[in-house]
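Obj.: predict assembly geometry.
Materials: sequence records (below).
Method: joint structure prediction, all chains together.
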Amino acid sequence: MSVEVERKFVCNADTLKTLEEIGAVCLGQRQFCDQYFDTPKFDLTLKDMWLRKRKGCWELKCPTTADKAEETSGEQSRAAAMCSRYKEITNLPEIQLRVKEVIKDVCEDSETETSPSQEEESWMSRNNLVCFAEFTTVRKSFTLEEEGVQVDLDEADFGFHVGEIEVLLPEGGDMQSALNKIQRTAGKLGLTGDKRVEGKMHAYLRSNCPEHFARLLSEHIL
Ligand code: V4E
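Observations (raw structure tokens):
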């Protein structure tokens, strides 16, 4: 399991030029389609748990608690507040366990032999998991001299752009060092705002799923 520490930023026509000027190396461009799943009552997302399938692989993002003791100055804690931290679980049995903690399976596994894809289908239907969001992203990725920092420029198919500065940590890894790397990179990119920037899901739900969006806003998940 790893922890993703990420700061989103508004990207514009100058972002590519700035990345070039600060010596970022382009890792290439790729395209992927994401499908996000939840129950009709939003059991997972109301717990800030995000279950997704990308390129045939399942992934669950769960919140992790910020370690305030690591933030020694006001500036550090402001910088930390700009970042999100999520545990990323990619192992399907572990994902199923986490989901089970939130949603009680309606009925037990059947004993009959089934293929992995039939088992996934059955798991989804037992847990009443339905796809609530589906969109395609074109992503340009860059790496910086700063070790372990990746910058992604995303363009979603519903006309939304966002940049992300990202560090991936092993669980229990040095969070403060990750936050410092993100802060230094934000400085190099000339990012000045002190408000969290909305991501693709935020924009998608606002436009396409007003009831879901309102529930998450009222519970301070988004
Ligand atoms: C965690 C989360 C969601 C799941 C999607 O996460 P995100 O990192 O935005 O997507 P993406 O495509 O960049 O994934 P990657 O390729 O990096 O794995 S949707 C909403 N959240 C919660 C959330 C939040 N509350 N605030 C911010 C700034 N981001 C995400």
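Conclusions so far: The chain is about 30% helix and 35% strand.
To do: check interface contacts against the pulldown list.
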